[in-house]
Every structure is written in structure tokens, then in C-alpha cells.
Amino acid sequence: MINRVVLVGRLTKDPELKYTSSNIAVSKFTLAVNRTFAGPSGEREADFIQCVVWRKQAENLARFVRKGSLIGVEGRIQTGSYDDKDGIRKYTTEVIGDSVQFLEPKSAVQDNSSFNDYSRQDYPQNNNNQNNNNTKKESTPTIDVAEDDLPF
Asked: According to CATH, what is the number of the domain 5-149?
């Protein structure tokens, strides 16, 4: 059986970095991924996908990227459920990231002021990243975590 996902999209807000009681870093974030087709009104739509990364990858994500950053995530889909405070069963679906790649130089992340207000209501119709030609190109770090390193 195969359970692999590859996503490219923009962060809807700064990644949230937390630590478990065992001091393991975990970062949860939402990735806005454009659909390949236009909706009935002719506008491009996006899916908002919940993602989770662990350990050093989580720390680096929180350190190097911000809301609006273009990143790639490779991982697997994980589903779960829980009972809310009223006893109603809730279902969850998220991507557990095995590999995250930063797809913009650090200067583009700092200059991404046009992406400061991502939400489901105001996702930009055209999110083509147009960098200034005078921007110095920097190499972007790639963080890979082996699946054996994940805590589940």
C-alpha cells in the first residue's frame, strides 16, 4: 500500500512551534495549495491543508519561514478522531511531513508583505511570486527527516 503526498503551497500563517512533554519539537501549520482548475465563477480556488512536522525539521521551519512563504512538503496522510467536550466524534486529516523544502530565498520571505493576510476569505487570486531581479539569490535549506525518526 502506498500513502504519499507531495504539496507545494504557501503558509497561511507563521508556523506554530511547540514541544512535547518529552521535549520533542513539533510544528503544525496550514498550507494553501492552489487547485489546478478554476471554479464556476472562473476564479482559482485553493485547498487549505493541515500539516505537521517533527524534531529538527519543525525547529527549522519555525526559524526560516513565515506566513506567505512558498514551501514544498512530502509526507503521508494521517487520519484520526477524538470526542469533543460535548461527546461528539470529530475526525481529523493531516499531512505528516517527512521532508520540507523551502522554495524561496530568505530575502523573498522577508519581502513577502503582499501575503500578510492569508485566510480562507482573502486568499490572493494570483499568487505568482514575482521577485525583484535585483534580489540577491540565496540557497535555501532543505530539511529531510527519515520516517524512522518520527515518534509514531
From this structure: 2.40.50.140
- Domain locations in the chain as residue ranges: 5-149
| Dist. CA 103–CA 86, nearest whole Å | 42
Contacts of 113 (CB under 8 A, 6+ apart): none
Confirm if 60 and 53 have CB atoms less than 8 A apart.
Answer: no
Question: What pTM value is reported for the model?
Answer: 0.68
> 6 vs 19, 74, 133, 152, CA distance in Å?
26, 4, 29, 20
Inter-residue contact 103 to 8 (CB < 8 Å): yes
**φ, ψ dihedrals at 55, nearest 5°:** 60, -140
Q: What is the pLDDT of residues 78-126, one digit of tens each?
A: 999 999 999 999 999 999 999 999 998 876 655 554 444 444 444 443 3
Answer positive or negative: Cα dihedral of 80, 69, 151, 1. Answer: positive
Look at 65 and 130; give whichever has higher pLDDT. 65
